[in-house]
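C-alpha cells please, single chain.
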Amino acid sequence: QVQLVESGGGLVQAGSSLRISCAASGRTLFSYAMGWFRQAPGKERDFVAAISRSGGRTYYADSVNGRFTISRDNAKNTVYLQMNSLKPEDTAVYYCALARSFGLGAIEVLSSETEYDYWGQGTQVTVSS
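Here you go.
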C-alpha cells in the first residue's frame, strides 16, 4: 500500500515563494509518474503539474506555467512543487498523486484525475494579498 504525505504548506504573501513536498512510503517513487492537484474552497479539484517517472518530462496547467516547477528526487522518494510569484488565486489545498500505469504515453494525459491511483491528504497553501 502506498502512502503519500504532503508538507510545507502555509500562509504567505502575494509575490512570495513556497516549496511543498510529497513523501512516499510503501513503494519506491521512481517507478511511477506523479502529479500535483489543488482544490480551492467551493471549487472542483484542478490539475497543477505532472512529472514522468524519470523526471525528464513535465507538464503544467496554463495558470501556473512559468511560475511553478515540479521536480522529484527518487533517492528520497519525494516530489516537490516550487511555487514562485504566488497569487491570492493560488490559495487552495494542494494534493499529490501517484499514477501506477503511466509510462511512455503523452504526458498531457496526467492532467486527468482518472490517471492516478493514490492520493495524499493535502496541504493548505494560503496566499494573502
